[in-house]
Amino acid sequence: MSVVKINAITVPKDKQERFEERFKGRAGAVESTPGFEWFELLRPVEGTDQYLVYTRWESEEAYRVWESGQDFARAHEGGGSELAPAASNSSHLWSYEVIESAAPDRP
């Protein structure tokens, strides 16, 4: 089954625009990584200042290979020193196994 990695990153209100810009400038190499399935950046709407960075992988091994490679380092440069750092030092990486999923029924 697939695995999901969610990075919960606290971003103060006054740095949110800058943080989002970092993701717009990301290398994009993750999309062609073997085993990569999905990416989403989730902006908080209310009740929190934590952004969620959601990635889905075909296996834990596929994620670990990417995490230990150069593409991971490039993706986390975040647009260079002009845009970094935007987030605080508060982040948490959560790991989940997908045990059930559904998609819309479409003919």
TrEMBL record:
<feature type="domain" description="ABM">
    <location>
        <begin position="3"/>
        <end position="93"/>
    </location>
</feature>
<keyword id="KW-0503">Monooxygenase</keyword>
<dbReference type="GO" id="GO:0004497">
    <property type="term" value="F:monooxygenase activity"/>
</dbReference>
<dbReference type="InterPro" id="IPR050404">
    <property type="entry name" value="Heme-degrading_MO"/>
</dbReference>
<dbReference type="InterPro" id="IPR007138">
    <property type="entry name" value="ABM_dom"/>
</dbReference>
<dbReference type="InterPro" id="IPR011008">
    <property type="entry name" value="Dimeric_a/b-barrel"/>
</dbReference>
<dbReference type="Pfam" id="PF03992">
    <property type="entry name" value="ABM"/>
</dbReference>
<protein>
    <submittedName>
        <fullName>Antibiotic biosynthesis monooxygenase</fullName>
    </submittedName>
</protein>
<keyword id="KW-0560">Oxidoreductase</keyword>
